[in-house]
Specification:
With 363 residues, the chain is mainly alpha-helical. It has 21 helices and 3 strands. The chain has a 3-stranded mixed sheet, with helices on one face. The radius of gyration is 30 Å and the shape is elongated. The N and C termini lie far apart (95 Å).
C-alpha cells in the first residue's frame, strides 16, 4: 500500500528508510508494477534520493539493484529515473572495503548484470555498480543501452571472474599466466585504464623473470604473442620493446634464433605484423629470414612473387645480409631470375632492389 498509492507518499516523507525498505520488498514481489511504483514515488527519486544515498549507501544499492532487476523482467527500458539514480550512485565515494565484500558474494538482489561466456555454462553474475564505476564502456552499455547481459565469449571464464574481482577490489590479485592475456584484453576492451597499467607491470615482471639463459620456448611464445596482440590490436609497441631488450641481453643468441625460426614457421601464412616482430627480435641474424625467403623462391611450384615475398624483400635490409653472407646475393638473384611469371609489379620491385643495393654496397 505504501508504494502503490500516491497519497501515502506524504506519510513516509519523514522516514525514508521505511519508504526504501517498502520499495525493495514490493518490487521483489511485483515486477510488473515497476512503472506505476516509480511514478508514485517520483518526488523521492528526483529530490531526496541523493542525500539519502550519501548516508545509506548499502540500502540505496539494494534498491537500485532491485529496480534494475524488476525493470529487466518487466521489459521497461525507458525509465529516466533509473539513469538518474545510477549516475548519482556512481558519483558517490564507496564505503571503505565495500568492493572486497562483493568477491564471491554476489546475491540474487545484486545480480542484475551478467557476463555470458558460454551458452553451455551458467552466466557470471557481477555487481553492476562497481563494474560501471571502473569501466565507462560498461556504464554506457548499462545506462544508455539498458543491457543486463554482456557477451564475453572471446574471454575465458577465469579471466572474466578475475576482471570482475579486480574491479571490486582495485587490485588484480588473481591474475595468472593462464588468464593474463584475456584479462589484459578485457581491460582494453572495457577501457579500465588502471587495470591495463597493472597488466603491463605484470608483463614487465614476467619478462624480467623468464627471459634468461634458461628461458624455454613456451615462455618465449607467451610473451611474443602478447606483443603481437598489442601491436596488431592496440597499435602499441611497449611489450615488444621490453622483449627485444631482455632477449638481446639475457637469452643466448643461438637460443633466440632457434625460437624465432620456430615461431615464424612458414612466413607465407603469417601476418606482416608477426614478420615485423621476428625481424626486430632476430636483429643481426636477419639472414636467417632471407634464407627462408630464398628457400621459398627456389620451390619449383613458385612462379612469381606474392604479397608476403614482396613484403619481405622491401622490409629486409639486404645490404646487411649480403655483407654478412655475400653468397646470399647470388643465390637470391638466381632464384628471382628463375621466376617464370614475373609481372610489372615484380619487375619494378626487383629493379628498385638493385638500385638500393648499388647505392649502399657501392658506397
Amino acid at each position: 500500500a505504501v508504494v502503490s498509492t500516491q497519497s501515502t507518499g506524504a506519510v513516509v516523507r519523514s522516514d525514508h528508510h521505511l519508504l526504501v525498505e517498502a520499495l525493495i520488498a514490493y518490487l521483489e514481489e511485483h515486477n510488473d508494477m515497476i512503472v506505476q511504483t516509480v511514478k508514485n514515488c517520483e518526488w523521492f527519486f528526483k529530490n531526496t534520493y541523493k542525500d539519502f544515498m550519501k548516508k545509506n549507501f548499502e540500502l540505496s544499492r539494494r534498491l537500485l539493484c532491485v529496480i534494475c532487476a524488476a525493470r529487466v523482467k518487466a521489459g521497461s527500458n525507458d525509465l529516466e529515473f533509473i539513469l538518474l539514480a545510477i549516475d548519482r550512485l556512481f558519483s558517490l565515494e564507496l564505503p571503505l572495503g565495500y568492493g572486497r565484500l562483493q568477491v564471491g558474494n554476489i546475491d540474487s538482489v545484486q545480480a542484475c548484470l551478467h557476463f555470458k561466456v558460454d551458452d553451455e555454462e551458467p552466466m557470471i553474475a557481477v555487481n553492476p555498480i562497481l563494474l560501471c564505476i571502473n569501466s565507462p564502456v560498461i556504464k554506457s552499455l548499462v545506462t544508455d543501452q539498458h543491457q543486463n547481459i554482456l557477451e564475453a565469449d572471446d574471454f575465458s571464464r577465469a579471466a572474466v571472474e578475475c576482471f570482475a574481482e579486480a574491479c571490486y577490489t582495485g587490485k588484480p590479485e588473481t591474475v595468472t599466466v593462464d588468464n593474463f592475456q584475456d584479462v589484459f584484453k578485457m581491460s582494453h576492451a572495457f577501457k579500465v585504464d588502471w587495470l591495463k597499467k597493472k597488466c603491463e607491470l605484470f608483463f614487465s615482471n614476467y619478462v624480467d623473470t623468464k627471459f634468461n639463459q634458461s628461458c624455454n620456448y613456451d615462455d618465449f611464445v607467451f610473451a611474443v604473442d602478447l606483443a603481437l596482440f598489442q601491436m596488431e590490436k592496440l597499435k602499441e609497441g611497449s611489450f615488444l620493446s621490453l622483449i627485444i631488450s631482455a632477449a638481446s641481453s639475457n637469452i643466448l643468441p643461438s637460443t633466440r634464433t632457434k625460437y624465432i625460426q620456430q615461431y615464424l614457421g612458414d612466413f607465407e601464412t603469417q601476418s606482416t605484423c608477426k614478420i615485423d616482430i621476428c625481424i626486430a627480435l632476430i636483429r643481426s641474424d636477419v639472414c636467417l629470414i632471407l634464407e627462408s625467403l630464398i628457400q621459398h623462391l627456389q620451390n619449383p611450384e613458385v612462379k612469381c612473387l606474392n604479397e608476403k615475398s614482396r613484403y619481405l624483400l622491401n622490409k629486409l635490409d639486404l645490404s646487411v645480409c649480403f655483407r654478412k653472407k655475400p653468397e646470399l646475393r647470388k643465390v637470391l638473384f638466381s632464384a628471382l631470375r628463375n621466376l617464370t611469371e614475373v609481372d610489372r609489379e615484380d619487375f619494378r620491385l626487383i629493379l628498385e632492389l638493385c638500385e638500393r643495393l648499388s647505392e649502399t654496397l657501392g658506397s
